[in-house]
Design a protein that fits this description.
23% of the residues lie in helices and 37% in strands. With 449 residues, it is an alpha+beta fold. The chain folds into two domains: 219 residues, PmbA/TldD fold (2-Layer Sandwich), CATH 3.30.2290.10; 223 residues, no CATH class. The termini are far apart.
Length: 449
Amino acid sequence: MLDHNAARDRAQDLVSRAARAGADAADAVFAADAALDVSVRLGKLEDVGRSESEELGLRVFVGSRSASVSTSDLSPAAMDALVERAVAMAREAPEDAWAGLAPAERLLRGSPPLLDLDDGGEVGPSTLRDAAMAAEDAARAVPGVTNSEGGGASASRSVWALATSHGFAGSYAATGYGISASVLATGQGGAMERDYAHHGARLRRLLEDPASVGRRAGERAVARRDPGRMTSGAMPVVFDPRVGASLVGHLTGAISGAAISRRTSFLLDALGTEVFAPGITIRDDPHRPHGLRSRPFDGEGLPVSPLAIVERGMLESWLLDSAAARQLGLEPTGHAARGIGGAPGVSTSNLFMEAGDVPVATLLADVGEGVYVTELIGQGVNGVTGDYSRGAAGFRISGGVIAGPVAEFTIAGNLKDMYRALKPANDLEFRYAINVPTLRVDGMTVAGG
């Protein structure tokens, strides 16, 4: 695989070709990836897969018209044909008054921050096989586990580069590692329950021990055996961190520039107002060392920096790329995200909700009767109204403690009300792309199966 400096040169070369072909402005993305995945099942090797790819994407502007093209053929002749085709397409495209490159005066200048995202990624198939075996063995060793969907281990390394015709060129490399296990436990009458565990890290030395991942998968599956049914009514719902992160994900969709400019957000007029309970702070930190979504610059070449999106309950910022910022008469926020094709969208980096002040046991103590959710099913969220309805599974809360498993119930509410009623515990851990502590939301509607 190319190093990130050579990747940057590739992107710059494509931009230069576009300028020579008649584009008024252009940007180019180069992305390369190499990944190795190993899976095992019931103690035997099941699959070894390796993938490698190199792609270039080009966006050109002719006046206020633009077009995007991409290719995996990186020969000089293919580059010339790609550029000619892109410029011809742009000349026939409709005008867009808001499209364009990021403001030149806002581009990242100087050296980007060092984020410790790349350890080389040299891991052999046998090492990954041993890790996958260890995870599955530990999961199957948990008493009550009766079958396995398998264990897996992966390693990857990617290189990403961006160049623009108005002065930006940058690149970086990142590695990624993963361990997973998924097993089943059989309850009374032969009914089986499945659960899983996974851990991912940028650096191999930070990856959790495979046996710990496997044990967690096994314990989760066994705990779900013989689920009961929830009674219906209004009650507190407590979200496990691995599913509670989705509540913050709905926030990012509602405050994206596209949703605001199209007036399709349930938070349309909420900027500068109290959206969450007064103690809630949500931060985005692209500079977190070896973070799963850390990055030195955004998808348009703008600098990125830590940002409080919600500060003590107040919504402080939209998430804006340059096009949405122009349309709204605001400045871009450094959240542009680019794929190989098309115009930029927006994305957060390492998004997290700050921990609260109370332990999980205290958060549960005065619940009385409620439910602790560990799995969400379906996509019943309306981004325009904030109406929320999801299938769920988890555990009954009785007398302030977690009791037996429950399944096939629905939780419902409106995100505006849920955000204002939200209470975080103090157990925040950084394990995912979006991280939250255990969350409690009072007054939700639960419909039993």
